[in-house]
């Protein structure tokens, strides 16, 4: 069929559905709501069989839904209605949830149901759940709804009448008054639910010092204590804030937008506060647990061992890796290389693997060009270290999505394992960049020069299954998000125990030496960075306008992508 995918943003779920539907040979057109093109005119021009709205903040006009079947993905179970469905579920600590695909009608979320799928909500942030458990359920429900629509024989179930068994709950938008944290009274568990229910958007509005800030994300702190509401420590760019019975780590902050002022955006908490941050101790988390297996709370980089397998786990908000993230991860990687292992696993978490350089930090820097350069060279240093590891096998365990330099970080490993449901974006073009991280070496050796050119120029998301078919990844694990890490660990143990592993390590070293004779890795890096330097330090480069539009969530200037 020809399907028009309508979304307020081409977000993770939209990208995943785009890739899944294309894998099933549907023709998929994408229209971003509010980009200036009239929806009715687009429908007349494209003549779709079906309209699918996976993430839409505005209503579909009557002249469209009355003449074309329009399916809306609602991140809640049947009968649940309202714009803050998932937010409320997380804040209320709901464990059993679901996703509903319903037909658009005059009343929001009240149309007949084409499909619904249950899902469990782990104790995670809203955005993590949205990209994982909720997205898994949404894909199952959408594919079923599309199949039912294509059959022409299915009648969707109306949300009224004797056949309707679900209680209908219409719940309003979750406003900041309901998200408000009472630091003196709210226990840590309540604080975490409120923070996690708003972790990506909109954040929890609060007061720090003499300013209004949105708090994004939250992790429990088991040991540190202080006066409730006070900032008591920093760690890896996050701030620790005392609660009534403990403390929480808050990784990111966003200043409240001043009336008539420019849009604000999330930054690492320490970076956001800058000179406003009071003197606080930096409490560094050890890379490895102690002999009793204990670890002092949250850390964004951790290392552990299981026999001959080392696991270097990392998780950065939004998958973005600033200069500091890259440097700390490189230091941890070099530590891991000094350990007596034959297999080293990178990643293994349930959410983002990496999305490459940190555009928000770059946008906020006094000199974005200088910070772009520092960030990309730090990323190159990390990827180069992985590429030149020849004394053990390296596995990239991609449990979530990856994009741009994050994909190239994964491709630097000997094997790439993905969870079914991961989405890869192996390109840089939509940010107006040529790209680095040795992509001109690692991508063609994986998929061939012709396909590498298509992937980077078409700039379309690739599903894990499609990535496996074209050789971009080596293995796809068909499991839930919480099962990916343990599943990858079991496979890594089998890999380390295989009698062929030592031969593979020797062959890997020989192959790297042979490749180096043909063309040194430094030559790839220098050629890529020569182009990137021009793009960073030329003021009229599309990169700067595209970056600002992305970070500040503004429409992309017309015609700008055509120049990249």
How would you describe this structure to a colleague?
- Helices cover 37% and strands 20% of the residues.
- It has 564 residues and is α/β, with parallel strands linked by helices.
- It folds into three domains: 2-170, 3-Layer(aba) Sandwich (Rossmann fold), CATH 3.40.50.170; 180-276, Formyl transferase, C-terminal domain (Methionyl-tRNA Fmet Formyltransferase, Chain A, domain 2), CATH 3.10.25.10; 301-550, Alpha-Beta Complex (2-enoyl-CoA Hydratase, Chain A, domain 1).
- The strands form six sheets. A six-stranded mixed beta sheet has the order 2-1-3-4-6-7, with helices on both faces. The chain has a six-stranded mixed beta sheet with strand order 17-18-19-20-22-25, with helices on both faces. A four-stranded antiparallel beta sheet has the order 9-10-15-16.
- α10 packs parallel to α12 and α14 packs across α15 (449-458).
- The radius of gyration is 24 Å and the shape is globular.
- The two termini are 31 Å apart.
- The model has no long low-confidence stretch (mean pLDDT 95).
